[in-house]
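Many introductory courses stop at the sequence. We go one step further.
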Amino acid sequence: LLTLVFIGDGAPAGNYGYTNSGYSVYEEENERLTESLRTKVSAIKSLSIEIGTEVKNQNKMLSEMDNDFDSAGGLLGATMGRLRTLSRGSQTKLLCYMMLFALFVFFVIYWIIKLR
């Protein structure tokens, strides 16, 4: 802050209406506050640059994850299509395969028990 003190019409030409002691105190305070503000602005600038870098890295990672999820979704869609095709097939054929498997397991267990 700069305070003007008017001395009047008889003030010396080099003084410009400021008192020497008041002017230097306020000037020193202004310099100190300016330096403090400059330091804070520099800190905020470096922080905002770091935030910008982090945002770019996070966006890149999200883009890669999006691509991975898209490929996994495509694979899952193809698998679901195959399952739908399988479920539309003949139920009799599926039941026959299950019965043959059960008979096979039964004979294997019977054979293991008989050999003991």
